[in-house]
Amino acid sequence: MFELSAFDLSLLLTLALLAGLVDSIIGGGGMIQVPALFAALPGFPPATLLSVNKFASVIGTIGATIQYAKVNKIPWALVMMSSSVAFFASVGGAYLVTQIPTEWIRGALPFLLMALLIFNIKSSAGLVHQPKHQHHQQKAIASTGAGVIGFYDGFLGPGAGAFYKMLYTRVLGYDFLRAAAPAKCLNIASNLGALCVFLFLGFFDWKIGVALAVANLMGSQIGTRIAIKHGNTFIRKGFFILATALIIKTFYDAFLK
């Protein structure tokens, strides 16, 4: 059982809705939802709060994926193979995070994000749909990238959705709108992988999870409509804003907190 004041519950649900909205457009909704959970429920085990975040994110992301799939066809052969890799890599990452310290990755993450942000600013990635590789090469590249990012998502997680989108836009040559559904399929897979580990270990709260999932889903439906309406340029600007925010947050968490 959990106890929340009406104000805390309303604030938590509002932030979950906002997280779903942001995540559906550019990724990174966990930056909003995870701190909100830790602030509202300080007495809960961290693993329980992380599993609740994963569950709500999965529901919201599925809703967003359905909306994006109505606009652009999903390359299912590519997505299914790389999603399977992301799922199992995330399982490994989520298990490993319970066994070893993560401080060294926390310290390296903001600098990695900064390099990737600069790398993307200097290109027109995401604005034009120009796939760079043949089908068999796409599968190999997408699966390799999904494995690395999926492991990271299970192990640590901040910005994994943005990394998946970067994989499709910068590496595979998709534009942002066509990259949205495939990237979100990978994000669903790695979230499910980590969630399975948390559920197996008994870390979950259904009441909080379902409440946040509903709010996250509502936000994702609003966000996808905004993204589809305003197109690639709008999403690209939002992506850069998110990457900058991730750099600031991960630097603070690693060195100043």
UniProtKB/TrEMBL annotation:
Annotated keywords: Cell membrane, Membrane, Transmembrane, Transmembrane helix, Transport
Keyword Transmembrane helix: yes
Entry's family note: Belongs to the 4-toluene sulfonate uptake permease (TSUP) (TC 2.A.102) family.
Lineage: Bacteria, Pseudomonadati, Pseudomonadota, Betaproteobacteria, Burkholderiales
Annotated compartments: Cell membrane
Any one GO CC term of the record: plasma membrane
Bilayer topology: Multi-pass membrane protein
Superkingdom of origin: Bacteria
Record field: transmembrane: 49-69, 76-98, 104-121, 141-164, 192-214, 234-252
Stored InterPro entries: TM_pro_TauE-like, TSUP
Designated name of the protein: Probable membrane transporter protein
